[in-house]
Design a protein that fits this description.
Shape: globular
Enzyme class: transferase
GO molecular function, one term: magnesium ion binding
Oligomer: single chain
Order of helices and strands: EHHHEEHEE
Cofactor: Mg(2+)
Strand content: 25-35%
Number of helices: 4
Strand order of the largest sheet: 1-5-4
EC number: 2.7.8.7
Largest sheet: 3 strands, antiparallel
Structural class: alpha+beta
Radius of gyration: 14 Å
Distance between the termini: 6 Å
Keywords: Cytoplasm, Fatty acid biosynthesis, Fatty acid metabolism, Lipid biosynthesis, Lipid metabolism, Magnesium, Metal-binding, Transferase
């Protein structure tokens, strides 16, 4: 297995909370999938969960070397959880096409959040 790229991002939870408050559903619908919104909104305090997913998407865009734009849209990335609760990335649309075109076969992600900050790492891998 070869490393295609790595990415990391840290975001202030309050900043994401302000964007969610200010733009209501417009921000959430632009950046997060319906599944992500349902998960975050089901939590006692959704803000850290939204912030961690935002950080993960930024970290993936850095690992791909594309940023968020034509090769990787916000909703081309969906952060889910496996049966044990570990974060997992699902790609669709242009993000999936970019990964396939560049031989990216797996993207490992890690999320964390504390009182003020959320952080995420992404490792894009090529090969078996």
């Amino acid at each position: 297995m070869t490393i295609f790229g790595i990415g990391v991002d840290v975001v202030e939870i309050e900043r994401i909370g302000l964007l969610l408050d200010r733009y209501d559903e417009r921000f959430a619908e632009k950046v997060f999938t319906e599944t992500e919104r349902a998960y975050c909104d089901s939590q006692r305090d959704p803000r850290p969960h939204y912030a961690a997913r935002f950080a993960a998407k930024e970290a993936v865009s850095k690992a791909f070397g594309t940023g968020v734009g034509k090769d990787l849209n916000w909703t081309d990335m969906e952060i889910t959880r496996d049966a044990l609760g570990a974060p997992k990335l699902l790609l669709s649309g242009a993000g999936k096409a970019f990964a396939e075109a560049n031989g990216i076969t797996d993207v490992k992600i890690s999320l964390s959040h504390a009182k003020q900050y959320a952080a995420a790492n992404a490792l894009a891998c090529c090969g078996a």
